[in-house]
């Protein structure tokens, strides 16, 4: 599953990074800070929901529009290209419209995409609405963690920033729950009607509800004090700082600190990422490698295609959606484990443990799928191998969630030198979107060719990630950002 960078906007460095470690928030204001952080994290919820909801609708789309593997891959993967564009545009939008207005724009795009996807006259038009939703995902993937970093008091920044990650996995889980419930209500077939439209159309359209909630919550939160100062609204910035950091905060000192950071910021250029011979710096290649490995283990096959995956080995549509829901719950559990351990045992140990666990579980799944017989609706998997495949899939998701799902974004936010951090992270994140797209667009054809061999490929990437972590990744736990070089 694609993860969201808890990092500042391109060209920006969060004010909270330079705040004094002894600065504490007034507990009486914690409730307010939690609310505005949760409101911003609704973008992450929609990020996860919109990314994964297509899983339940794939079968219905195929049957309704009479399309094959190529068209299916187009509809599922096209949103990821929109996400890449939205992530690139988010920094410019946030600096010109403000953080809150950018959130409102994302909410509107999510809502329009949901309504449009519910009533597509053709698969091509559905793809267009998916691109629009992808743009909203890209915007949300940048603006939410940026806003939280800029408003959160130093004493609570780490815990409040984790809201975004948890919101993403909860969005994925809720989307699978909604898919399963709608499919059951329609008698186990996503092409059956529920009122005027088919179940798969409801699956895509329900997104409008959380999108509207996101918009309403965005209207209730203050603008980032950093943006307010950057645009000359110092008095309003002082008011917001007092609200989120408590009445004891030295407003003159905080405003002066933010102004100092704004004046001294270095806006990196692409040339800053290049070494002496015109190649990207080694550390940038490491960031790109981490992003690519995170996707090439095939995690998004589980969240985008698990419904058709399990149907391809003889499980009916309703039960396949129930399996998708259970893997999403395992994803939440793994994410909680990662959040609890990443600062205790370090980034590298978690990543190594996850890589080994993913390689073993993917290899086991490949073995189980090699026993598949038949094709299409007649495909079956022996009971023993079917059970093994189910267990292996859940173990794979758990291993990914407690390691690479969280660790990669933590590393990308920490590993780069200050002067290139924002731009280098943007490059690595773009590589991740493209790798995600590559896996997503190729899986239907690869699975139709040889499902077992496809999982062998993913297992090989998981295995290759072990020496990559061991020899290329440097531990960042306990190090100040200024120590990275």
Describe this structure in words.
The chain has helices at residues 30-65, 69-97, 99-118, 123-151, 157-185, 199-205, 208-219, 225-230, 234-245, 251-264, 282-296, 299-311, 317-341, 347-369, 383-401, 404-414, 421-472, and strands at 193-194, 197-198. The protein has 485 residues and is mainly α. The chain folds into 2 domains: 1-17 and 24-265, Growth Hormone, Chain: A (Up-down Bundle), CATH 1.20.1250.20; 275-485, Growth Hormone, Chain: A, CATH 1.20.1250.20. A two-stranded antiparallel sheet has the order 1-2. The relative contact order is 0.14.
Secondary-structure blueprint:
Elements: H1 30-65, H2 69-97, H3 99-118, H4 123-151, H5 157-185, E1 193-194, E2 197-198, H6 199-205, H7 208-219, H8 225-230, H9 234-245, H10 251-264, H11 282-296, H12 299-311, H13 317-341, H14 347-369, H15 383-401, H16 404-414, H17 421-472
Antiparallel strand pairs: 1-2
Helix pairs in contact: 1-2, 1-3, 1-4, 1-5, 1-6, 1-7, 1-12, 2-3, 2-4, 2-17, 3-4, 3-6, 3-7, 4-5, 5-6, 5-13, 9-10, 11-16, 11-17, 12-13, 12-17, 13-15, 14-15, 14-16, 14-17
């Amino acid at each position: 599953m694609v993860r969201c960078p808890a990092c500042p906007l391109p060209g920006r460095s969060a004010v909270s990074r330079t705040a004094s470690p002894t600065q504490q928030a007034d507990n009486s204001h914690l409730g307010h800070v939690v609310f505005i952080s949760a409101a911003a994290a609704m973008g992450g919820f929609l990020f996860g929901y919109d990314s994964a909801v297509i899983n339940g609708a794939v079968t219905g789309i195929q049957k309704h529009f009479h399309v094959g593997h190529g068209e299916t891959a187009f509809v599922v993967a096209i949103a990821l290209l929109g996400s890449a564009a939205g992530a690139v545009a988010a920094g410019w939008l946030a600096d010109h419209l403000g953080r809150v207005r950018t959130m409102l724009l994302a909410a509107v795009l999510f809502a329009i995409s949901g309504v449009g996807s519910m009533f597509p006259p053709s698969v091509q038009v559905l793809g267009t609405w998916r691109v629009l939703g992808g743009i909203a995902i890209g915007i949300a993937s940048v603006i939410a963690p940026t806003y939280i970093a800029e408003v959160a008091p130093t004493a609570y920044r780490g815990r409040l920033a984790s809201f975004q990650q948890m919101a993403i996995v909860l969005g994925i889980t809720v989307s699978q729950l909604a898919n399963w419930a709608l499919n059951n209500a329609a008698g186990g077939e996503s092409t059956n009607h529920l009122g005027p439209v088919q179940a798969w159309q409801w699956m895509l359209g329900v997104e409008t509800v959380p999108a509207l909630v996101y918009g309403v919550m965005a209207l209730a939160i203050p603008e980032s004090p950093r943006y307010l100062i950057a645009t000359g609204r110092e008095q309003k910035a002082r008011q917001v700082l007092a609200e989120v950091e408590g009445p004891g905060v030295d407003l003159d000192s905080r405003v002066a600190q933010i102004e100092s950071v704004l004046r001294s910021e270095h806006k990196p250029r692409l040339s800053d990422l290049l070494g002496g011979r015109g190649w990207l710096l080694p550390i940038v290649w490491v960031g790109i490698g981490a992003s690519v490995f995170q996707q090439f283990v095939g995690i998004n096959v589980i969240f985008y295609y698990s419904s058709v995956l399990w149907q391809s080995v003889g499980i009916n549509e309703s039960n396949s959606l129930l399996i998708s829901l259970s893997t999403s719950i395992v994803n939440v559990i793994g994410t909680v484990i990662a959040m609890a351990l990443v600062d205790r045992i370090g980034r590298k140990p978690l990543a190594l443990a996850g890589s080994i666990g993913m390689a073993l579980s993917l290899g086991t799944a490949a073995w189980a799928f090699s026993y598949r017989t038949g094709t299409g609706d007649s495909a079956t998997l022996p009971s023993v191998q079917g059970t093994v495949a189910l267990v292996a899939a859940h173990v794979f998701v758990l291993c990914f969630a407690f390691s690479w799902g969280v660790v990669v974004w933590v590393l990308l936010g920490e590993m780069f030198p200050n002067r290139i951090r924002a731009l280098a992270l943007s490059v690595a994140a773009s590589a991740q979107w493209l790798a995600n797209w590559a896996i997503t667009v190729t899986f239907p054809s690869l699975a139709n060719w040889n499902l077992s061999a496809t999982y062998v490929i993913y297992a090989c990437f998981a295995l290759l990630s072990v020496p990559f972590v061991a020899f290329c990744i440097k531990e960042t736990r306990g190090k100040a950002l200024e120590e990275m070089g």
